[in-house]
């Protein structure tokens, strides 16, 4: 069984057992850490990336409980600032180096669109699986320093209703002496 199949099979098992998000994260995070670029034949996939596309995604597996998706981004392009409402995401970088910027909503200013930058760092195949939670790292932008690829295991998956993906524009603002970021939905 391939390492990717192992993740899928283990995920199906965990969801059938109604496992807690923390348990799912612990088990699947360790399995995702074992996956590398060769397991997904990424040299070939990246060489054949559509030159017209800044980024592309390839669904690998999907159930009502979770989805596994491969994302590929051309050097110098980005997946713009977006969210994963009420979702967890295990993000495993497999190819190249990317720069990840994440934001958390400033909870003391509810519904204001104000957020604080949380993570602002590079990641590559040596980086452990990155965790996105409903209230942590949930809004993020991914910039490709090289041609790069990563896996996202999303649970629950997007549903185009209460868990629809939104894109944002950002603006730095000063609030009570603190520099925050105002995030405004584009859709
Ligand atoms: Fe994302």
TrEMBL record:
InterPro entries (UniProt xref): PCO/ADO, RmlC-like_jellyroll, RmlC_Cupin_sf
Membrane-spanning intervals of the chain: none
Keywords: Iron, Metal-binding, Oxidoreductase
GO molecular function: metal ion binding; oxidoreductase activity, acting on single donors with incorporation of molecular oxygen, incorporation of two atoms of oxygen
Coiled-coil residue windows: none
Family matches, as CDD domains: cupin_ADO (cd20289)
Domain of life assignment: Bacteria
Database matches in PANTHER family: 2-AMINOETHANETHIOL DIOXYGENASE
Protein name per the record: Cysteine dioxygenase
Species this protein is from: Uabimicrobium amorphum
Lineage of producing organism: Bacteria, Pseudomonadati, Planctomycetota, Candidatus Uabimicrobiia, Candidatus Uabimicrobiales
């Amino acid at each position: 069984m391939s390492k990717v199949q192992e993740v899928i099979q283990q995920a199906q098992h965990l969801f059938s057992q109604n496992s807690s998000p923390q348990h799912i994260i612990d088990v699947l995070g360790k399995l995702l850490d074992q996956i590398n670029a060769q397991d997904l034949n990424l040299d070939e996939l990246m060489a054949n990336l559509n030159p017209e596309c800044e980024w592309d995604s390839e669904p690998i597996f999907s159930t009502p409980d979770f989805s596994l998706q491969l994302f590929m981004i051309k050097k110098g392009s980005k997946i713009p600032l977006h969210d994963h409402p009420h979702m967890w995401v295990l993000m495993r970088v497999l190819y190249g180096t990317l720069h990840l910027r994440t934001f958390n909503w400033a909870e003391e200013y509810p519904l204001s669109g104000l957020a604080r930058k949380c993570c602002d760092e590079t990641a590559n195949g040596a980086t452990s699986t990155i965790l996105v939670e409903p209230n942590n790292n949930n809004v993020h932008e991914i910039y490709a320093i090289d041609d790069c690829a990563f896996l996202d295991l999303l649970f629950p998956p997007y549903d185009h209703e209460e868990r629809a993906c939104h894109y944002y524009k950002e603006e730095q603002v000063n609030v009570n002496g603190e520099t925050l970021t105002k995030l405004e939905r584009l859709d």
